[in-house]
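ugh ok fine here u go
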Amino acid sequence: MSLAAESHGFLSPTGVEIAFLLVGLVTFGAAIVTVTTRQLVHAALWLVVTLGGLAVEYLLLTAEFIAWVQVLIYVGSVVVLLLFGLMLTRAPIGRSPDADSGNRWAALTVALAAAAALVWVVVDAFRTTWIDLNGPAAGSTEATGASLFQNWVLPFEALSVLLLAALVGAIVLSRKAKADAATAPGTAPADRIPADGSDKEGAR
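structure:
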């Protein structure tokens, strides 16, 4: 056990540990709101708060590189892509009954089981590992980048292709909805005026 573990125990937390706990509670609350709200735009915005809270947690654990990756990739790219997808598909801004599948209890059971398994794995793997929060940052950018592009490059590339396919699908659905609205029966002739604004029948 390191010197950091011997200097204080669980009954004498430091300021960093208290901040870590408070930020964790805020992040947990934002995550709960994200998966329980029926407004899609609000869910995306609360997801920003959740991911931002995780970035702060990484900063408190002296993992600056992972924190900035969290902000740039997830907050700056993934959430923005979700918002663009909502706009392109013209998702409802207010409450949407379609956003609730009715399987909340099954989803809650799976989420609790996954959370319990994740906590058990992390605690079992790092039971005797302590991080010196007052020491230098653990893990350099060089080592993290080498591990990322050697061992995890394929999952990252697969995720990028998946996000691109989702964006293309949103554009296709948006164009299909516009085409169906233009060819719907009972459309008034005034709604079929050419895009250039000319009215050939009126000119005659």
